Amino acid sequence: AQSVTQLDSHVSVSEGTPVLLRCNYSSSYSPSLFWYVQHPNKGLQLLLKYTSAATLVKGINGFEAEFKKSETSFHLTKPSAHMSDAAEYFCVVSPPKGYSTLTFGKGTMLLVSP
Amino acid sequence: KAGVTQTPRYLIKTRGQQVTLSCSPISGHRSVSWYQQTPGQGLQFLFEYFSETQRNKGNFPGRFSGRQFSNSRSEMNVSTLELGDSALYLCASSWGGQATDTQYFGPGTRLTVL
Fold first, then answer.
1. What is the mean pLDDT of residues A35-63?
2. Is the Cβ pair A96, B100 closer than 8 Å?
3. Is B83 helix (H, G, I), strand (E, B) or coil?
4. Which range is least confidently modeled, A2-16, A76-90, A92-106?
5. pLDDT attached to residue B98
6. Contact status, residue A76 vs residue A65, Cβ threshold 8 Å
7. Which of A111, B45, B95, B100 is the right S-S partner for A51, CB 3.0 to 4.6 Å?
8. Nearest-by-CA chain A residue for B36
9. Contacts of residue B99 in chain A, CB cutoff 8 Å?
10. How does strand A10-14 pair with strand A108-113?
11. To the nearest whole number, what is the mean pLDDT of chain B?
């Protein structure tokens, strides 16, 4: 079985300050991990994914995440927030092989103030 | 390449009715997955189709069903609608539906059950 816990339901930052969205996973194997973003009334867009290659994963729009097996974490970071980053972010886990069955976290709403 | 398209975008039905939602995957993608998104339960996996075969199914009642056509387009059907079926239904496509494949999401169909 696999599960994902996003530790914060809401995160507020000021424009230009760093972003940290926290995600812990539980899995009986080494999973594939993803971060997706959802803007209001839009579908989900992939930010980045980890599939057992480099532990530091770079994604789109300046986001990156680090896979830490010892801490079972996959936190999402960005050095400097932009107003357009305001959206809901989902941490997602999938088994390392076999058919894709994505398990989503509850989501973290990122609020960016000017 | 065109993205994943879903029709209709919005739907209003009454309890007891049935509804059919449609999803056209990215050209060349053979796997289509469906997800339900609600404020209470978040994003939950419904089922996945590959080459017209359902390979995987989430924990939903039999009222939820789907199919895939030879051109990879997929439909999902919900019969005997209940108020709790009100949700955003998201479709995602990937090349092969493997766990490490990136899933590309459509904008969703917003279903309201009155």
1. 90
2. yes
3. helix
4. A92-106
5. 80
6. yes
7. B100
8. A104
9. 32, 94-101
10. parallel
11. 94
